């Protein structure tokens, strides 16, 4: 599954889901993951919104899913929690099948093997519900094995339900990324994945490591294990879009095109979150689609959206990507 063309990823799941459930997501300790249990129809509809607007890739709504979270906030037992994670993956497959049926009935061609269903594997910090996925502070006191053991339960539930790859995403610290990549290489040698870091500016991860150093460390680790082909891409998500180009230049700016590390990017809309007033500044945001050519030039193979990006934003990104892919073919 080496990526030959630039692919369109979906947008902010919790953001688009508000179209179906209203603004009851933010502030919930389970965030959008509660609806996997309480409103599965809304999960399917949200996936469908993105597919109908041109997404090649949908991520399962498992970012915030954890056994601990479901046991505490939904009063499920361990096995029920794991089954809910599996079932969440199945909801994405139901949406995919509905979409393919729609395309078939409308005589629309869909590329073989698409759309892809990729499991969202959010960071250890997300289940702590203390904002630490945006600081990575737990890297200073939680041992790597404890983090990978925690991830393993969710990863296995997603793999059992069937996914095309894993999106290891919003990772705030180099240690967690390295530990996960080592675990995947050792224990799940056939599983494809990408790694997307959470960055606080145009140079550094949330926890303070340099993005280029962390990405190169992952790429080198994969090279040592002869496993670079398992990694679809390395990149960033849930960041301000203005940080992306400098981050990518720091990694691929000096590399020849055929030596570029394949990159993944799905930033926020550019709005800024304020605890009192919520999301601010939509009217000043540069449309994400405008950035597509420069990001693709720097090696982006997957481009989509994160917080505050809707299905319509993905449609515009998709149009920009199709134009880019056409130009690349012509050249």
TrEMBL record:
InterPro entries per UniProt: HCY_dom, HCY_dom_sf, Hcy_S-methyltransferase
Keywords linked to the UniProt accession: Metal-binding, Methyltransferase, Transferase, Zinc
Domain Hcy-binding as annotated: residue spans: 1-321
A matching Pfam family: S-methyl_trans
Superkingdom, natural source: Eukaryota
Cofactors: Zn(2+)
Residues reported to bind Zn(2+): 238, 306-307
Transmembrane segments: none
Pathway: Amino-acid biosynthesis; L-methionine biosynthesis via de novo pathway
PROSITE patterns according to UniProt: HCY
SUPFAM superfamilies in the record: Homocysteine S-methyltransferase (SSF82282)
Record's protein name: Hcy-binding domain-containing protein
Source lineage: Eukaryota, Metazoa, Ecdysozoa, Arthropoda, Hexapoda
